[in-house]
Amino acid sequence: MVAAYSPLVVALPFAAFVIAVAMGDRLPRKGAVVGSLAAAGALVLSVLLAVTVAASGTYTATVWRWAAGADGITLSFGVLVDPLSTMMLIIVSLIALLVHVFSLGYMNDEGERDLPRYYAGLGLFTASMLGFVIADNLLMAFIFFELVGLCSYLLIGFWYREEAPPSAAKKAFLVTRFGDYFFLIGVVAVFATFGTARFVGPMAFPTLAEAAIAGEVTVRTFGLSPQTWITVVGLLILGGVLGKSAQFPLHTWLPDAMEGPTPVSALIHAATMVAAGVYLVARIYGFYAVSPDALAIIALVGGFTALFAATMGVVKREIKQVLAYSTISQYGYMLLGLGAGGYVAATFHLLTHAFFKALLFLGAGAVIIAMHHHEDMWEMGGLRRRMPVTYVTFLAGSLALAGIVPFAGFWSKDEILYETLIHALGGSSVLVVAFAMGLLAVVFTGFYTFRMVMLTFHGSPRSTHAAEPQPVGMSMRVPLVVLGLLAVTAGAVNAVPLQKLTGLTEIDFLHQWLDGGTATLTAHHYAELLPYTSAYLGGGPATTVLIGAGASLALAGGGALAAVLLYRGPEPTAHTDRLGAVGRLWYNNYHLDEFQVYLARGVTAPLAGRLNGFDQRGIDGVVNGVARVAIAAGERIRRLQTGVVGSYARVITIGVTTLLVVIAVIGGWV
Amino acid sequence: MVPVSWYLAVAAAVFAIGLFGILTRRNALLFLMAVELMLNAANINLVAFSVYWGNLTGQTFALFVLALAAAEVAIGIGIILVMYRNFDTTDVSAAAEMRW
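ok -> structure tokens follow
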């Protein structure tokens, strides 16, 4: 039984972390080999687990019960191996393996120092994410969620001797912690409401929430109706999601996180940190599906972020900045999909995005190595002849990102938009707005993607580095090719539009996969819970698919074509200035960073200063005043202790006599 | 038979004399004697009530008080000796070191 060994998926990378910490300097390639082997082991085990799930269904077990309360609340670590988690396990361990291999070229061959610390960080990062994915209850998920945040802090700030990375690391940590604070309250609220935080089983909290809204069970709702209270709890948990998945307004940490080593960026953006937020919503989707308000908010935030981030990506100068904003935008799509009821669509996009975004980041890493660590796209140009492998794979990733048929991103993004469209047509006005924003973002996505490709690889070299790029080694090319193939083909796992058009059945493999396992965690079950109804354009799903896919493809193609036309030629000119004030606003990220700094410096710091003053003077004043009164009184009262035995006798005599007189008077003897 | 209140009056007088001694004298030996007077005032009460009620418990108790008084004198004189060795006097107000 392979499933019984599932905790090993987490233990292997963790062991790599421990080994790298303990004896990293003596390891071959400073820990890279051990880390890669651990990630490969985790990958093999994940695939075996997927096979087991396919054969014998969901496996769940409690590994360690570390606290048990008198009122039946238990806190435990456990594993939940089901279709969703095995899919994510494979993604995470595969990307982690490729990132480890890529790091051989990016870090080891460049002669970086402190490499054991780097590989220890990667190992712990991988282990934390895998532990988060496999978690069977919300508290365990939260603990590993926090560990993921800690590891991203450690890795973003890897080059701590420079000025920017530590600052970016702190920003990432603080901004995501802000969201996680709400998540923590949400976890406590889930325990307080349902008495359990389990994801699966008859007493799982999403199942209980469903039953509570139907009125079949009663839960503690603190005076609110079950519907309202579950929405409140869902939104609290969503706080953590918005922070980790870099959604508006907590997205500001992610572009700064580009200060970390590029393979780390690939890992953060494709598989671990940022994916954690969206995965969490998918994991407890049954909980959100019963709350129409929470779903609407998720869809709106997602749609808005998709558009909002895409606009900023249009004007950036640095290749990794463009990719950073594209990540925010793409995760916006995933949340849009989840909020619009497209559970499978969003999960599908999580899968394809992991591949093509890891590919794009590793490709950018190769470019950065070739450019001797220069990241400004205006200093690049013409790299396509010098690095054909990187160019071809990067182009595949870009086509997938832009959503051009038949690359992976097209299928998943189109399915998200399709689900949003049919549910919007079904009468949800919120989704109409969200869909419009999502569709508009497609144009921007196509544009910034191909602006990046044109500036980086086409034209003629615009600097000496670009003219004489440093060749990249095998360890960097192999991951690129693997991911390139996946970016081209991964869409085939879920070609729903083809199924709708051709009438072929059984080619929506991901749908079938996510419909397996425990009944309460299937896509089918979620579809029954959702508050949406579907309606179609032109009378049927096939026509709607054609119109929707055609529109988004035309928009993406239009955006891409515009970028190609604007930035073609050997010496492309910058068109950013023509955008005027809007362009400057985009380039400065809508001044949101400044706004957050203002919130910290102008609002929070003075308020904290006031409160500190009140604490120092008010609270401490009372406490110290009481002590001072006691000291002064003691100083006076101790004079009674004369040490002269005669005076003690006098006091005793007077005291006893007084007592006798008082008792006599009260007792009525006289 | 002599009424019990007479005994009580004698006992109260003896007790008051002892108390007067403690409050006015400063010589430690006189202190000790005054304490003896007070103890014996209590003994008179115990014996008087014992006879009054026809119950021997009070007289037995008086014997215990006598034994206690003897022990108290032994210890008291020991303390006075130590005090004289340290302060060269038996004046109780001299021994006032143990204060604030």
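Chain A touches chain B at residues 638-639, 641-646, 649-650, 653 (CB under 8 Å).
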